[in-house]
Amino acid sequence: MSVSSAIFYGFCSGSMAFLNKTILTSYNFQHPSILLFGQMIFTSIILRSLKTLGYLLLPDVTYDNLILCALPSVFYTIHAGLALSALGGMSIPMYTVLKRCVPLANLLLAVIVLGRGMPRMGVVASVLVITVGCVIAGLGDLTFDLTAYVAGILSVLSQASYLTLVQKLSLNSKMTATGILYLNTLICTPFLFIFILLTFNLSTLSTYQYIKDPLFISLLVLVMCMGMMLNYSIFLCTTLNSALTTSIVGVIKGVVTTLIGMVTFGGVQLTVLNVIGMIVNTIGSVWYVYEKYLETLVSKRIENCQV
Predict the structure, then answer these.
(1) How many alpha carbons fall within 13 Å on the CB side of residue 108?
(2) Per-residue pLDDT tens for 239-283?
């Protein structure tokens, strides 16, 4: 397991949740598709520039390579749009709690899509505890928004799908995280552009009250940069570890963002179920980390015996 890639992903994911929440609520910028499209354009320009300067190797843009990355990219685009929509209508604590259902979906998809056997019972049990905690906390949400929760649930399913497909892609094609990220942006960008043309009135941007605000512009640029780093960290952690590990890192990150989110953006109304659910989530997360640590010890012992 690559610990550094997991930590890098956790940092990027946690930071991005608060940056997106600030854009969507504090600045009332209710255009998630524009944010996502900007991130894709920014990422493409940066990666292409680094390749031109000789600092980066990227795969050729061929029909075969684009087909390989097509399905993960479709699920990624769906996930990103739904996640931003859900975040706009939910508090950060409840959003992060809901996202903790991703490990269960990844656990099932690893068996179905990757053809792997069921993990150790301890791993399965810890993931189930995490999911139960999510359900309990959700039942205690006093600001329940059905639309936001539906978007969040669909986001969970699409995220689990693209993480599993990225892992399968890296195993079958040996494509690097940077290469997957590059092809992903090329595939997603035209679809997002068409979607914006069909659903968005560009004239509304000219009347947006913060369009010339230096702080808003600076935050927007920061979101573009962090969006690129987050996407890279996701693919890096998934290719070096697994889709399940990436989703579990998201759960652990969620514990921290939940605590911070309680005292930011106006706080959140806590109930007994909220607290119980978050505690159960945390117990399940710690349990999973312990189970993965045991797996690492067993693997090392097997390697030493073979030597």
Answers:
(1) 9
(2) 777 766 777 776 666 666 666 655 555 555 667 877 788 788 778
Quick one: average pLDDT of 56-76? 85
Burial of residue 110 (CB within 10 Å: 0-12, 13-18, 19+) is buried
Return the closest-CA partner of residue 229 out of 4, 9, 1, 7. Answer: 9
Q: How far apart are CA 258 and CA 271, in angstroms?
A: 14
Q: Measured between alpha carbons, how far is residue 161 from residues 37, 56, 90, 173 in Å?
A: 21, 28, 23, 18
Cα distances from 191 to residues 77, 78, 179, 213, in angstroms, run 9, 11, 19, 29
DSSP 3-state percent helix, strand, coil across the chain (nearest 5): 80, 0, 20
> 144, 90 in Cβ contact below 8 A?
no
Q: Is the pTM of the predicted complex or chain greater than 0.90? A: no
- State pLDDT tens for residues 37-48: 888 888 888 888
- Residue type, position 211, single letter: I
Cα atoms in the 13 Å half-sphere on the side-chain side of 150? 3
Q: Are 236 and 9 in contact (CB under 8 A)?
A: yes
